[in-house]
Amino acid sequence: MLDLKFIRDNVGKVREGIKKKNSQADLDEILKLDETRRNLLKEVEVMKAERNRVSKELGVIKSRGEDISGKSAEMKMFSQKIKDIDSEVVDVTQKLDCLMLAIPNIPNEAVPVGLETDNKTVKEWGKKKDFGFKPLPHWELCEKLDIADFKRASKVSGTGFVVFKGNGALLERALINFMLDVHIKEHGYKEIIPPFLVNEASMTGTGQLPNLKEDMYSVDKEGLYLIPTAEVPVTNLYAGEIFPEAELPLYHAAFSACFRKEAGSYGKDTRGMKRIHQFDKVELVKFVVPESSYEEHEKLLSDAEKILQKLGLHYRVRLLASGDMSFAAAKCYDIEVYSPGCNEYLEVSSCSNFEDFQARRANIRYRAQSGKTAYVHTLNASGVALPRTFIAVLENFQMEDGRIAVPEALRPYMGGMAYID
RNA sequence: GGAGAGGUGGCCGAGUGGCCGAAGGCGACGGUUUGCUAAACCGUUGUACGGGCUAAUACCCGUACCGGGGGUUCAAAUCCCCCCCUCUCCGCCA
């Protein structure tokens, strides 16, 4: 959420930001409601001051044992008027808050303006492998090796789910543990295992609600949502809290399953596990002071990249254009790993700086040395998402004889296994 | 699921209708003392919103806030109702 005062003082910038993000947010209505609200407040606060003054007097008079019934009847009417204006204020404020929640974060100046087609590749690591044979897509490899089962998964849960089996399950588990170990032992993150169901306040705090409601699974009876990413519970861990500055920056690494309806993407990436409703992910979340957030953003990106480097997977880094960034992000890099079986780059991480956008929504602050409180900056990145990494490992390390060579970095996590066959 | 207790400022904790934005303590900040540190002593110390004045998030005024929402009252931290959360005990269960 943006600061209302900031919006008031920077109408041009905000309007431009909304446009860059391709958003429909109604800025004019917000400005109108804001003015109405302030006028009402001015009026009612003067009345309240009067009421407070008279009430105090009446207390004194009554304590002397004198009669106050006449004056008190008069004040009753006055109080009713106050109540009427107050309810108008509540009404206007609710409308205002609702519209405010729909205003996206403003893109950082370094972000290219435009749509998905304007994303820029800012880095490439490794290169496409020369196989000497036609590499198979992962769904064929999975079936041949019997390590993942899409048919049976759809029998128990419907389309868009997967079952890992045998060495496939082992590979999945190895990847999770490998990623966590790298981030915890080498990059200084503290591990978190969060709840996979969260309440509405948490979903609003990180900005998934109200805009992405359609894409979320919910348990309506309990008012809970299945998390689409560990970002939600981990960021909201500190909702309403104030960090001492000395505790920042705070780094968290969290494993979780993630649940996404992927509404509106039917017919896209339907084969295999490029886009599934439940997937595993290791998420990195940072809480930092505002001055350091862009420096921390670069470090975050390199922490996530490290995983693919250690696995020896060719990838590229894309700086997202304003219209392709998420609602809450100010700047975002996508890491895309190469899939030779599908011959395309697959997103495995979005590495975002939210500045104070989430912190303001979730009310996460820090107390500076000076004693002043201010909103922290929050950042997160997948470190990294499992299914597409799983795909990349299978497809990049497949051999002509049908076996998969296990990347060196994963072998210790698979009991020394060198090949999946 | 049943019974009970409780939720007050950065933290702990007093406060059952007006003189309570809220005692006291801790912490933090400033100062005195001090070779340094510690201790002691003195002082300061909530947030949000609106308005005024501004270079200013400095200052002044006002309003609101004692888990959240509603009600009673001239007046609510305090009384009433609903909800949420925490703790203890019992039951059920992985």
Q: What is the level-2 CATH architecture name of the largest domain?
A: 2-Layer Sandwich
| Beta-strand share of residues | 15-25%
Number of strands: 18
Pick out the low-confidence regions: none
Beginning-to-end CA distance, first to last residue: 51 Å
Order of helices and strands: HHHHEHEHEHEEHEEHEEEHEEEHEEEHEE
* Residue share in helix: 40-55%
Structural class: alpha+beta
Number of domain modules: 2
Question: Largest beta sheet: what is the strand line-up?
Answer: 1-11-12-13-16-10-9-4
CATH class of the largest domain: Alpha Beta
Quick check: average pLDDT? Answer: 92
What is the general shape?
elongated
CATH-defined superfamily of the largest domain: Bira Bifunctional Protein, Domain 2
Give me the CATH fold name of the largest domain: BirA Bifunctional Protein, domain 2
Largest sheet, strands/sense/barrel = 8 strands, mixed
Number of helices: 12
Rg over CA atoms: 27 Å
